[in-house]
Each structure stands twice: as structure tokens, then as C-alpha cells.
Amino acid sequence: MRFTPKGYGGQRRGPDEVKRDSWREQGLLAVALDDGRLTWPERELVRQLGERLYGKREEEARHG
């Protein structure tokens, strides 16, 4: 019998699965601003939250 810890061997989890598991297990939310599943107001809310918590993105700081 061979034991491998989660994340070693077997199939690698995809990015959406990692995000989903992080939300469900740890309450962490990872959201891309260009996620097509979000409406404009939802993307804007995510952008504003990101700026409030972490400051402007480098891309936005350079252009405005």
C-alpha cells in the first residue's frame, strides 16, 4: 500500500478547483478582475476591495 499526501501524485488540481477549495476550507477568495462570470458591478466591487486592502495595482498606478 502506498500513501501520498494531498497534492502529491495523482492528478493536479486546476486553478478553479484550488480557488473553490480555498473558499470552502479557509474562507479565502481569489477573483480575477476579467472573470467573464462576473457582471460589471461585481468586477468593480472586487477592484475597489482590492484597492482598499492592498492599494492600486502597478498597471493602474502607472497610467493614472
What does this structure look like?
The protein has 64 residues and is an all-alpha fold. It has one domain. Helix content is 52%, strand content 0%. The model has no long low-confidence stretch (mean pLDDT 89).
What topology emerges from the helices and strands here?
Elements: H1 15-26, H2 40-54, H3 58-63
Region (Disordered): 1-21
What distinguishing features does this structure have?
3 helices; elongated; mainly alpha; single chain; 64 residues
Task: Provide a brief overview of the structure.
The chain is mainly α and 64 residues long. Helix content is 52%, strand content 0%.
Number of helices: 3
- Number of separate strands: 0
List SSEs in N-to-C order.
HHH
Assembly type: single chain
Rounded to the nearest angstrom, the radius of gyration is 17 Å
Return the average pLDDT rounded to an integer. 89
Largest sheet: none
Strand residues, percent: under 5%
Which outline best applies? elongated
Structural class: mainly alpha
What is the straight-line distance between the termini?
59 Å
**Contiguous runs where pLDDT drops below 50 for at least 5 residues:** none
Which percent range fits the helix content? 40-55%
Summed up, the domain count is: 1
